[in-house]
Amino acid sequence: MSYEFEFSDVFAAWPELLQGLANSLVLSGLAMAIGLVVAISGALGQMLGSKAVRGLINGYIELIRNTPFLVQIFLIFFGLPVIGIRLSSNTAALVALVVNVGAYGIEIIRAGIESIQKGQVEAGKSLGLRPLQIFRLIILKPAIQAIYPSLTSQFILLMLNSSVCSAIAANELTAVAGEIQSRTFRSFEVYFVVTCIYFGMSIFFWTAFAAIEHTFLRKPTR
Amino acid sequence: MRQLGPNEIIFILAAVRWTLLLSLVAFIGGSVGGLLVALGRTSEFKWLRLMMAGYIKVFQGTPLLMQLFLAFFVPGLFGWSVDPWTAAALGLSLHASAFLGEIWRGSIETVPPGQWEAAKSLALRYVPKMTLVIIPQAVRIAIPPTIGFMVQLIKGTSLASIIGFVELTRAAQVINNATFRPFTIFALVALVYFLVCWPLSAYSKAMERKLLVASR
After folding, report:
1. Total domain count for chain A?
2. This prediction's pTM
3. Stretch B138-167: mean pLDDT, rounded?
4. Which end of chain B, N or C, is less surrounded by CB atoms within 10 Å?
């Protein structure tokens, strides 16, 4: 192997990489927060809405789940201006991520709602629990316990998926990598370092989410 | 500027064959790799289990796009220059190996301990134990999530367009650059992906439901 590694140019660009990392995290966090609102409304619509509303929501889920995120983001960034909706690349990236994670989130939230058992609520009533206690202990906590693992892994998927937003030059980590690469021509070094940064973020979130689950959401052992 | 005519539409639609071919190659490569990963992950050697767990984590914890970039640039370190097709096939195969390996590990582990003990008490060696007793029972459970992952893989091939491989998404970009009809073109492309992926998703879901009923 005659290749000489040269990481100094990449490490010299650390302020840019740090900024890119921060942007990626903000983008993913915002998308997850808004996506959750979409997912909760969608799940409620699916359970309470009319037949037409349910059909519409199912169509949305199937459409998003069965097309690539890259095509979705192109459609939003390049396609929407044709019908008069012009978004900046950062906004388009956020909208695309929200639309995408919303579709996956609906099914997660619905599973959480379905995990609540009517009999348990009645058992709570007959034990003399107050309505607020019933909501907190019998409805909310088990539902969160049920959705927490899928929701947190969905967030990590979303964070990794946000790298695709570089395709429309949104301002995030992968786009920063592209800029550094075109300036230094150190392709392997740049992408290796950035891959390590993403992996570091994944490890951080895996660990943090597991710790939160262990501390707050432990299930009672029988 | 070119008009978006039948020739352009045919150019886009014909590019779906590269998407399908790339998906197929990656699925075959990923199946071979995935089987090795799954067997390593369930083996009796701790070092092998840890190594495979690490392999899975790396691919689950990094973006597919980065994996493709590295598949494109790493061979260059050894003096091999690869074209986008080879890089995409390599990157997606390694990616699929990790995910299929994890899916199949789960399926192998659902085979009840009694079956492992029965195979052992029949004095079966590793290969006949796995091929005659464990894998046939694991396959049934593995089919729905495997098909579900195929959908992920087909969608994932769209990222090969970013490293310059001309498949469906890239063909659409090329035509869009010449005709500038983005809404029509990308909606058409989304429709093509949908027509390929939706039957697989629906089949996977139906199979899953069937297994659930059977196990009740």
Report:
1. 1
2. 0.91
3. 94
4. C
